[in-house]
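fyi for ur records
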Amino acid sequence: MRLLGSSRLLPLCIAVLWLAPSADAWGCKGHEVVALVAEQHLDPHAKAVAFGILGDWPANGNLPRYCHATGDPLADASTWADDERQVRPETAAWHYIDLPRGAPEADLAKYCPPPEGCILSALTEQLRILRDASTAPAARADALRFVIHFVGDIHQPLHTITNNDLGGNCVPVTFFGQRPEESAIRRGSFHPNLHSIWDTDILERMSPGQSPSDVAKDLETKFRSRISRWQAQPAAFAAWAWESHELAERVAYGQLPHPIPIERPRRVTTCAEVAGPMLRLDENLAEPYQNAAAPVVDEQLAKGGARLAALLNSLWP
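which gave:
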C-alpha cells in the first residue's frame, strides 16, 4: 500500500510506501468513476482505439497495484499512475499544481516550473505522445494511462491549491468522530486530513456500499443535461485547474469551522513543519461540511468524466 496523502508526499523508501495507508487523488473509487463516466460518452471509434492500446500494451505486470482490478480497461488504467510514480518518482509532481491561496489566475504558469513541471505540463506532454504515431506503442499506452488519471486529478480541488500545507495534507481533521492520528513518524502526517477526506472519505460517505459503476450510473442520470455542455467546451487545462482551485478555496477551505488564514507562500517539504499549529485548530468536520462538499465532489467527478471522453474523442475522431 502507499503513503498517506497526495503524490507530493514522497517515500523514504519504496518498501515503506507500499505498506502504508493510501489516500491518492479521488482514491480508487473516484478515479474509476471518472473513467466509467467517460466510457459512456466515448465515440465507438475512440473507445475501440483506447481499448486496443490498453489491451495490446498492458501495464507492467510486476508493478504492485493498490486498487483491485475491476475488469474494465479504462477503470483499471485510471489508477495506474499512482502506482507507477512509486517506481518513477520524477512523475510525482505531474499529479498536481500548487496554486497558493490568494494567488491571481494570471500566475498559473509561475507554479509549473521546469524541469519538474505540474499537471498542466504533464497533460500537454502526454497528449503529445498519444498524438505521435511514431512513438513506441508501449509509451503511447502509458501516456493514455497518464491522461486518464490526470484528468481525474485536475478535477480534485485539493490537487490545485496549497496554503503551505501540501494541498491540505498537513491539515489534520476530525471527520465524523474519527480523530486524526499520526501516520508517518517524524513527517508530521496525520490521518484523516483535509486532503484525504476529499480523496476518499466524502465520496465513501456519499455512496456507502455502491460500486464505482453504481456511482457512475447515478452521476450519468443526475448530470445528463449538463454532460453534453461540458463535452462541447474546449480542453483548457489551465481553466480546469483554476476552476478546481476556486472550489477548493470556497468549499474545501471556506467551509471549515475554524477558518485558516491565507499564508504567505513558502517552500514546505514535510508536514512536520506546519502540522502542530494546524492540529491545534481542532477542525471537527461532520454533517454541515459533508453537505457542503458532497455536491462539489459529485459534479467534479461527472465533469471529469465528460471532459475525459471529449478529450479522447478528439484524439481519435
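The longest strand covers residues 181-184. thats all i got for now
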